[in-house]
Amino acid sequence: MVLEEFDALIRKILALDECSGSDVALNGLQVANGSATVEKVAFAVDACLESIRRAAEWKADLLFVHHGLFWGKPLAVIGGHYQRLRALIEADLALYAVHLPLDMHPELGNNSGLARRIGLQQLEPFGKYKGMKIGFKGRLAGQMSLEQVVRLCCGGKEPGINVLPFGPENISTVGIVSGGAADEAYQAIDERLDLFITGDADHTIYHHCLEGRVNVIFGGHYLTETSGVTFLAEKLEKETDLETVFFDIPTGL
């Protein structure tokens, strides 16, 4: 498969162009490779030296990530940015990044993955960001305790997971926006949800959640954003001739 075909396929699957006016990330091909072909695709959450090294050792043609190297503003090619670009070019490794479209996809997205983990039903769009709803809200099949949801969502009370137990003991309704979306807790309060799940913790929302009587799970930015890349890797492996692998490189945050 040539790079242009890969790009067209991803743009079709994830509807990249729909987020062009809202996403600060440069979605799509960020760095080309010399052969302009793709047979082996490595997946990771972050474009970092570790994910580039592992992809190069696996002899991937392309590294697909959720967090790429370009974020809507000029960035001098010095320091760590230079080292990452140099490593990509020396390995003849293309880099492809998809941010918001991979968060919000109804089947392959990070938020869909979190909803699936906890068995959330009756899904509706939730979490408005620049005019777009990038997360989901819904209702659990049966009431759960906060501890039960944490176990399903995050595997347990692990390092990096913070919980605000400020809402009902028996949880039925949940809103989800992965990654750095603490401010969407205000929407959860306004919609009287029992629980809000996101990645990054933020001191500034603490008292609002306490006073608004909503439970919050901060599952960690990394942990809440592994679903999208793994789902897409599985889809491409199954439906195309591409060979894929996912490199799990947790940050604990």
Description of the molecule:
This protein has 253 residues and is α/β, with parallel strands linked by helices. The chain has two domains: 3-98, Udp-n-acetylmuramoylalanyl-d-glutamate--2,6- Diaminopimelate Ligase, Chain: A, domain 1 (3-Layer(aba) Sandwich), CATH 3.40.1390.30; 104-224, Udp-n-acetylmuramoylalanyl-d-glutamate--2,6- Diaminopimelate Ligase, Chain: A, domain 1 (3-Layer(aba) Sandwich), CATH 3.40.1390. 32% of the residues lie in helices and 26% in strands. It is built from nine helices and eleven strands. It has helices spanning 3-14, 49-57, 79-90, 100-104, 110-118, 146-154, 185-190, 206-212, 227-239; strands spanning 28-31, 40-46, 62-67, 94-97, 120-129, 132-144, 162-164, 171-176, 195-198, 215-218, 243-246. The strands form two sheets. The chain has a six-stranded mixed sheet, with helices on both faces. Strand 5 and strand 6 form a beta hairpin. Helix 2 runs parallel beside helix 3 and helix 5 (110-118) packs across helix 9. The longest helix is centred in the C-terminal third of the chain and has 13 residues, at 227-239. The chain is elongated, with a radius of gyration of 19 Å. The two termini are 36 Å apart. The mean pLDDT is 95.
The named CATH superfamily of the largest domain: NIF3 (NGG1p interacting factor 3)-like
> Secondary-structure element sequence?
HEEHEHEHHEEHEEHEHEHE
Strand percentage lies at 25-35%
Mean pLDDT: 95
Give the uncertain stretches in residue-range form. Answer: none
Roughly what percent helix?
A: 25-40%
Structural class: alpha/beta
CATH topology of the largest domain: Udp-n-acetylmuramoylalanyl-d-glutamate--2,6- Diaminopimelate Ligase, Chain: A, domain 1
CATH class of the largest domain: Alpha Beta
Largest sheet: 6 strands, mixed
- Give the oligomer, counting copies of the same chain as homo and different chains as hetero: single chain
β-strand number: 11
The global form is: elongated
Total DSSP helices: 9
Q: Would you identify the CATH architecture of the largest domain?
A: 3-Layer(aba) Sandwich
